[in-house]
Amino acid sequence: MARLSVIGAGYLGVTHAVCMAHLGHDVVVIDTNTQRIEQLAAGIVPFHEPELAELLTKTIASGTITFTNDWATIAANADVHFLCVGTPQQSGSHAADMSQVFGAVASLSEHLSGSATVVGKSTVPVGTAATIAAQLKDRCGDDVRLVWNPEFLREGFAVQDTLHPDRIVLGVSDESDANIVKEIYAASLSDGTPLLVTDYATAELVKVAANAFLATKISFINAFADLADATGADITQLADAIGHDTRIGRRFLNAGVGFGGGCLPKDIRALQARATELGLADQFAFLTAVDDINKSRQRTVVERTLEALDGNLEHKTVAILGAAFKPDSDDVRDSPALHVAQTLADNGARVQIHDPEAIRVLRSKESDLVLCDSIEEALTDADVVLHLTEWAVYREIDPAQVGALVRNRVIIDGRNVLDRDRWTNADWSISYLGKPGS
Ligand code: UDX
């Protein structure tokens, strides 16, 4: 089994480290955030992700994972170093902030001696791997090799996506550099996971191309949702019908309040910024439309809410079901639900918001939203209800029972998944984004 380090204890790093330790590798995790390292060493996962806490506890007990904030420790105890730090959007620009990536490479290379492999997993602008490879060669010589291995995990499925990926992409400057990484992923590869060995630029682009395609698919169907609203068509049936064409596929064609999270929004902006730097602004202008359509979804929900309240938010109570950017996650980064909630609160509404997991995260920040621990608390005295994150628990609500709590039985389903008959049979008026309501 290999001796690995994972640099960066964020979403990607923690999941990757725990899964690699679960596979039996010796893993040491480093992060500059001492508090996070202490938490993890105590077996606490700082975010919600199914299966991860159990695997962390197990791997700590078996001694296959340890935590540190000392670069010399990881250099001495690992031969392969996975770079998993964040590349957030720069403030005041669409480009990625690369300071964590280059900072980590600088710190690591100060301590490396002898041979080692650095494996980049962070999502980066194309061209970064070549720059890092040159820096490593300069500072550490030819025995420190770089492989680029983009990560495609989805929040909520992060453990399964890491243990059973759809594909493994390894960007290299020399094919033999891929061997050590293939050994680390031997379990997935023997299960038949497709492997693609490419150059650095291709590997970097695979990641952003995948995310841009997914974001485009969502904005495509959302544009049609507006057309469906304008014509009385039903966007869900439309998506089902085109989705039967295997060239199109049904996945990522769910219309609604749009995409959010720590990846899709920032990755399409960073891709567009990089393409523009490379003189390809026109070819990638479509991503502005993808981003704009996505933002317009939130405005549509706000407008619908205003219509339901006769144009006046003052002294009105809006109940919001969902705060995370998607179900089975407590991540509120770029969350459409939270943007809508904040806009309504900023314009004078009392916003009572519930989420099975993300409320805990919101409590740690300053907020003028009324954070509710139960669905009932959120719905009490509501003038209108918005369903904005499709947690399973919201589909199980008994509309008749909660009807007694609200002032008006009016619900806007921003995710198009609530059953119309269930709600209308209990005297609710329900509307959707792109399909006829009641
Ligand atoms: C995404 C990519 O799927 C993953 O491969 C990459 O590694 C990181 O970014 P994630 O951010 O976890 O993963 O979320 P994902 O499941 O892709 O959903 C993104 C957003 O799109 C969510 O806000 C979701 O609600 C929205 N979405 C998704 C839709 O609005 N409609 C859909 O049909 C699918």
Structural descriptors:
single chain; 438 residues; alpha/beta; Rossmann fold; N-(1-d-carboxylethyl)-l-norvaline Dehydrogenase, domain 2; six-stranded parallel beta sheet; 19 helices; 45% helix; binds uridine-5'-diphosphate-xylopyranose
Task: Briefly say what this structure is.
By secondary structure, this protein is of the alpha/beta class. The protein has helices spanning 11-22, 34-41, 52-62, 71-77, 99-111, 128-140, 158-163, 178-184, 186-190, 200-231, 235-243, 264-277, 286-308, 336-346, 358-363, 375-379, 392-395, 399-403, 420-424, and strands at residues 3-7, 26-30, 65-68, 80-83, 116-120, 144-148, 168-171, 195-198, 317-321, 350-354, 370-372, 384-387, 410-413, 429-432. It has a 6-stranded parallel beta sheet, sandwiched between helices. The chain has a 6-stranded parallel beta sheet with strand order 11-10-9-12-13-14.
Structure description:
This protein is an alpha/beta fold. The protein has 3 domains: 196 residues, NAD(P)-binding Rossmann-like Domain (Rossmann fold, 3-Layer(aba) Sandwich), CATH 3.40.50.720; 83 residues, N-(1-d-carboxylethyl)-l-norvaline Dehydrogenase, domain 2 (Orthogonal Bundle); 135 residues, NAD(P)-binding Rossmann-like Domain (Rossmann fold), CATH 3.40.50. Helix content is 45%, strand content 14%. The protein has 19 helices and 14 strands. Strands 3-2-1-4-5-6 form a 6-stranded parallel sheet, with helices on both faces. Strands 11-10-9-12-13-14 form a 6-stranded parallel sheet. Strands 7-8 form a two-stranded parallel ribbon. Helix 15 links the parallel strand 10 and strand 11. The protein is globular. The N and C termini lie far apart (60 Å). It binds uridine-5'-diphosphate-xylopyranose.
